[in-house]
User: Fold this.
Amino acid sequence: MRLEVDITSKAYENATRERHDVLTGIRFALSSGEVGVFVGPSGCGKSTMLRILAGLDHDYQGRVSRPANARIGMVFQEPRLLPWRTVEDNVRLAAPQADEAKLSTLFTVLELTAHRGHFPTELSLGLARRVALARAFAVEPDFLILDEPLASLDDALAARLRERIATLVAQRAMITLLVTHNLDDAVRLGDRLFLLSARPARVLREVPIRTPRAARREAEITAIKAEIARRPDADRSERDAS
Amino acid sequence: MLRLLSLAVLLGTWWIAALMAGSAKLPPPPAVLATVITEAESGALFLHLGVTLARVALAFVLAMSLGSAIGYLMGRIRLANRLGDPWLILLLNLPALVVIVLAYIWAGLTEAAAIAAIAINKLPTAVVTLREGTRALDPALDEMATVFAIPRARAFRHVVLPQLAPYIAAAARSGLSLVWKIVLVAELLGRPNGVGFEIGVAFQLFDIPLLLTYSLSFAAVVLVIETLLVQPFETRVSRWRLRAA
Assistant:
C-alpha cells in the first residue's frame, strides 16, 4: 500500500477576493509501515495539506493517490470528540467493528481505562488527546494522520504520549503521517522527515532516518537535529538548478 | 414548595378579587370548583379536554416533524433556503385567524382543516428555529464523521441530532404554547366540541363559572404536560452539559 502525493498548488480567496497561496509544491510518497513527519513553522499550511490528504478538501491542483478503500484514522489538532457521548462511545462510534479485547488493550496502553465512562467535558486536554488517539487507532487504519497530537501538552506528558504513539504505530503496518513543529518529536518518531517552508508551503528537504525508531540513541537524535537546524533547506540549490 | 406557595397566593388573590367584584363577574373558587365537579361527573369535561388534546398532539407532531425537516434542509442547502425563504416570511407573518378561516372555507368545517390550520401556524417557527440550529452545527465534527467514514444515518443520529436537540426542545416548547393558543380559536370557529367550543358556548350564555372551568382545567393540563414531559426532556438532552466541571 502506498500513498503518492503531488500537490502543485492550493490557494483560497478571502472575503476581499484576495488570493492566498497556501501550498505550492508538496510531492512525496510513503509506503505502508513508514512514518512520514512534516515539520514546518506554525501557519505554513500543514493542516491544509492534511485536510487534502484526508479527502476533506478537493479544491486543489495536483494529484493525491491514496490506496482504494483505505481506512483512515485521524487525530485532529483539537480532539474533536462528541461531548454528548462517553469516552468509550466516542471510540466505538468511529470503530464499531472493534471488539472488547482490542479496545481494552488500547485503553490500557493509553491509560484511559479509568475514564471509559467519562464525558469529554470532564477531561483535561491531555486526556482528550489520548481519547482522540484511541479513536484513531481503534479503527485499525491503513492510513493514520496525526495533526500535532502533542501540541500544548507539558514536556513530560508529551514524552510519555510520544512513546505510546511509537508503540501503537509499531503494532501494525500502516502509512503514518505526522505533522508537528517540534523537531524533537519529528526525529524521535519519523522514518522520513519532510521539512516545509513558510507559507506558501513546499517541501524544502527530505531527511530519511535509517536507524529503527527503538534503536535511536540520544547522541544520534541530537546529531540529526543539529544537522537539520544547520541546513534546513540543503537541497534548495539542486531544486533551483533543475 | 415555593411553587405551591405562589399558587396559593394566586388563589387568595382570586378569592379576594371575587369578593370585591361580585360573583356575577368573577365567581369565587368554590363556585368554579362546583362546576368543575358537575362537568367532570357528566363526562363532558374529559370529552372536551380529550378532543382538544388529540388535536394539539396531531397538529404538534405534524408541524414539528415537517418543520424540523424543512428547517434542516434550509440550513444545510443554500438553494433550499433561497427558495423557501419567501414562503417562510409569508407564513411567519400570516395571522393565525386568516389561516384558520381560509382552511375552513377551502376544506370545509372538518377535522382535517382544523388540524392543518393549527399545524400551518406552528410550522414556520419550527422551521426558523431548526434552520438556526442547523447553521450552528459544528463543521469540525462533520469532518470527523467524514474522515472516519461513519455512515450517514449513524452520523446523523450521533453527531448531528445531539447538536440539534436544544433547538428541537426550544421549538417544541415555543411551538406547544403557540398550539395551545391557536387550537382554541380553531375550535371556537369551526368545531362542535373541544375546550374552545365550550368556551364559545359559555361566552354566549355569559356562564362565567363554565368559562373558568374549561379555561382552568385546560391550563392545568398544559402545566402538567410541561412539567412532566417537556422539562424532563430538556434536562435529558442537555445532561452532558450539566456534568461539565
